[in-house]
Amino acid sequence: MYGMTHRALRQMMIDRLGPSAWAKVERETATGPADLISLCVYDDSKTIALISASAARLGMEVDEALRIFGRYWVRFAELSSFGPIMDFTGQDLVTFINNLDRMHRSVVLAMPDARVPSFTLIEETRERLLVRYRSDRTGLEAFVIGLLEGLMDRLNETGTAKLVGHTNGAVDFAIQLDRN
Amino acid sequence: MQAAVTIRESQLGALFRAFIMVDARLVVIATGPFFLSRETEVVPGAQLAELFSLRHDRDDAHARPLDVAIPAMVDTPERLELFCKSKNIRLAGIVFSAEEGFLLALNIVPEDFIIEGQGLHITDFCQIDASVPALTLIGMQRALLAEARQAAIDLANAQAEAVELLERTQRLGRYIVHDLTNYLSIIRLNVANLARSGGSAEMSRAAIEAATRHVSDLVLSLERLTGHRDVEVPPLAIDQTIRANLAFLAASLPQDFTLDFIGSAAQVAVRVGRTELVTILTDVIVHARGAMPDGGAITITTYRSDEGPDGAISARGAWLVIKIIHDGTGIDKDTARIMLDPHAPLQADGADFPLRSVRTWSRSTGGDARITALTAAGTDIRIYLPVSDEGNVVEYHAVPAPVGAAHQPVRTARVLVVEDEVHALEAVVEILRLEGYHATPACNAAQAIEALESGDFDILLTDVVMPERNGVELAHEVEARHPQIGIILMSGYLPDESMLRPHWRMLRKPLDLSLLSQTLATAHAMLADSATT
Ligand code: HEM
After folding, report:
1. Pocket-testing residue among A89, A96, A107, ligand 1, by greatest number of atoms within 8 A of Cβ
2. Which one of A146, B2, B411, B451 has the largest count of C-beta atoms within 10 Å of its C-beta?
3. pTM: predicted TM-score of the whole model, two decimal places
4. Cβ–Cβ pairs < 8 A, chains A and B
């Protein structure tokens, strides 16, 4: 995965447990500044090692850590210098999800090794959005739930996101919004 | 012209996000999603010429008015560019004829290709518009530049930190080596003492025990220093610790000194290592000793204070202050500053100022150290340590005074020790004092000669290899002026024998302590004999 995830993870760990906890994660996983360049693409095993080591420090299951990390990630992206790209993608949940693929496609033009997912809004009512996620990676469902929660935080919505099923290699998530 | 294809408005909007349908008088009839999704003045009924012009800026004097330009462009491939009069928006496209008038098939052209501040979104561009990747990529490039700039700053900071850490480690390393050497010599001395019959076995055992404990604490500090171990330092009761180690501290002072302790911070605990505290106090006392060649009084006071080292007032006595006052020569402000400044150069003889370690250490605990010259004479040194409010105060260890600390010298020979290596010098002097001698240190031959002029000595114990005048030359000079002084040379190798006098004694380095005390004892005994006969 690209280095921005690693940077975001570092920031999350520093926010939660302080710099020494992250220093330990770096030591355990032999990570250095060269593994933290935003637009560099690293082997997924590196990202997984970092997440597992962080989960251990946080005293969480990996899935739980992935989820809080997904939620944190959105906040990190908007506060980082990628904020303008986030703004450009959309200012409401539906627009944002509809534009996510275009944004990802543009982003990866500069990153030949990146593998971006695809998000499609397949059903939309006032209170419920059904989002189909396609990826050639597996095991990131908890991360996606966290990301969707993060997007709700960002776009002033409250509600829940949960996995509702698998269809032909795609994973469907339902976002239930607290609207009335 | 008959339309060849019919396009629905929604399709039109997908292709030309900012299309505008106007009638023949250029009054707006309908608009594309770009205008629909935001508040603009481009609404049905508005006059196009009031909102847009072909003029890019004021210098564009030759721009035609819209009511001339638009009909002229109809159904030609000529590019129409419209500039919004009130906002920084540019639209571009071509003009089709339509039933009601004209269809301006327009898209957004971003100004400057910078995403920030233009209020543009991906949806403002049609699916095939290359502006989206262009804006995104430029956004990424800017993000990367910002990251690179930050990385350069981080790197510079890390470099400065590394240098600082290295210096600190070196400094602490020097202190630790020095302290270890001292404790080691105390252990050796007392082991030798134990082996001898007649010495006080109980005292020696206690001294060895105390020194061993200090050494293992020092090892702990080293481990912490090297990141080898994360050691949580438990809170330590300061008054009890100082009181329990008072005899040990007094042992580093010659007889003509008094050391008093007034502890008024009972129950106050601080997160510091016991040995670190004792070592730091030893450093302060060594400094005081240096400022008082003729002896004097040192008083250690402890109290709890609301005022921190920077003068800021905190709540509930957040600070523990250890105040050490001595009545030796005062020091001026600049010297005080240099003594505490970790970046200032070392002393002329290469040794570090003892007080610098005090500041380094107190800062490492979250506190600081201050030093003030008193008006009449003397110096006021204050160590500020943050008070720990947690329970679990470590039971203090009463550290028994090592041999000799009781100030009952068995022998009173006055020894002048000359050694250019400061730590070795301090260690030998320390050992001799513990053995009961009056030992005076000198870092080189010149200092030794000076000391000889102002005081009486029985024995000269000198290193051979020293810069400038070496130990053999010094021995010759001393013997010529003071023939009664016994001479002992210390050297790692055997000097040219032709230069030595037969009655001089030689000690091989590294020093064997039992041999040292034996040699000193016999030398002293012989001197005493020759004086009485
Ligand atoms: C400025 C914002 C963003 C940028 C620059 C960005 C960029 C990227 C890139 C480059 C990758 C590919 C990682 C690789 O293969 O190395 C990726 C993956 C991913 N992105 Fe984004 N992204 C952004 C925002 C978002 C948001 C808001 C979501 C929320 C749903 C999201 C969801 C994902 C997911 C789930 C992946 C995982 C890859 C997978 O499933 O295979 N991204 N992103």
Report:
1. A107
2. A146
3. 0.56
4. 70
